[in-house]
């Protein structure tokens, strides 16, 4: 495995971190939010940003690289997958017919090809779906409220979305390290 990159980090204070604490955009003021809803929103915002950080500075080929064969997982595939997840969970709450899949069955990973238009589209889809998810849940500040046709608790929607991002940010850590050796929290 001579083509494996050496590990590196931009951080100088803690060499296993993505960035030094004073440069990490996920911890703007160091003060934790007040209340359950604000805490859940903060965690989700930080995980969403973590995914973007893991993709930052890579070209389409690197973003589409499947670093752990035979898996079809790539950073670009994760971006597309999480756009799909945002839409799926919004569909649980939104009235009427669910919005269709963005990429079709399996298309989130299989369609993650090394083309700039695909990359741009994936990040645009992700931003749009995140905003739509947030807009729907903004109507439900009560964490115990039951919503949607399945009567799911709003709290469960927030926690599930955080869980999705947390799990996939762990994948993104490994994928990024295989691409260029960059490590970090």
Write a short abstract of this structure.
It comes from Nonomuraea guangzhouensis. The chain is built from six helices and two strands; from the N terminus they run H-H-H-H-H-E-E-H.
Task: Provide an overview of this structure.
The protein has 185 residues and is an all-alpha fold. It has a single domain, classed as Four Helix Bundle (Hemerythrin (Met), subunit A) (Up-down Bundle), CATH 1.20.120.450. 53% of the residues lie in helices and 2% in strands. It has helices spanning 36-55, 60-64, 75-93, 107-110, 116-138, 154-180; strands at residues 146-147, 152-153. The protein has a two-stranded antiparallel ribbon. Strand 1 (146-147) and strand 2 form a beta hairpin. Helix 1 (36-55) packs parallel to helix 6 (154-180), helix 3 (75-93) runs parallel beside helix 5 and helix 3 (75-93) packs antiparallel against helix 6. It is flat and about 50 Å long. This is DinB family protein. It comes from Nonomuraea guangzhouensis. It holds the Pfam family MST. InterPro entries: DinB/YfiT-like (IPR034660), MST-like (IPR007061). Residues 1-32 are annotated as: Disordered.
Key attributes of the depicted protein:
185 residues, mainly alpha, Four Helix Bundle (Hemerythrin (Met), subunit A), two-stranded antiparallel ribbon, 2 strands, flat, DinB/YfiT-like, MST-like, DinB family protein
Provide the β-strand percentage band.
under 5%
Name the strands of the widest sheet in spatial order.
1-2
The largest β sheet comes out as:
2 strands, antiparallel
Q: What's the number of extended β-strand segments? A: 2
Broad shape:
flat
Counting H and I runs of at least 4 residues, what is the number of helices? 6
By CATH, the topology is: Four Helix Bundle (Hemerythrin (Met), subunit A)
- What's the CATH architecture? Up-down Bundle
How would you describe the oligomerization state of the chains in this entry?
A: single chain
* Helix-strand pattern: HHHHHEEH
What is the end-to-end distance? Answer: 25 Å
Radius of gyration: 17 Å
By helix and strand content, what is the structural category?
A: mainly alpha
Classified in CATH, the superfamily is dinb family like domain
């Amino acid at each position: 495995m001579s083509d494996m990159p050496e590990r590196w980090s931009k951080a100088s204070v803690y060499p296993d971190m993505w960035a030094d604490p004073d440069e990490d955009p996920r911890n703007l003021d160091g003060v934790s939010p007040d209340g359950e809803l604000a805490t859940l929103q903060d965690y989700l915002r930080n995980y969403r940003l973590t995914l973007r950080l893991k993709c930052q500075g890579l070209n389409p080929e690197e973003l589409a690289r499947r670093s752990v064969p035979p898996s079809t997982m790539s950073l670009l595939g994760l971006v597309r997958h999480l756009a799909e997840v945002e839409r799926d969970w919004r569909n649980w709450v939104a009235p009427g017919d669910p919005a269709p899949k963005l990429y079709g069955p399996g298309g989130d990973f299989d369609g993650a090809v090394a083309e700039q238009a695909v990359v741009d589209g994936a990040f645009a889809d992700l931003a749009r779906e995140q905003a739509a998810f947030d807009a729907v849940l903004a109507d439900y500040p009560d964490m115990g409220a039951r919503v949607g046709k399945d009567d799911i608790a709003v709290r469960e929607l927030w926690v599930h979305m955080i869980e999705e991002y947390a799990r996939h940010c762990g994948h993104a850590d490994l994928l990024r390290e295989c691409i260029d050796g960059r490590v970090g929290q």
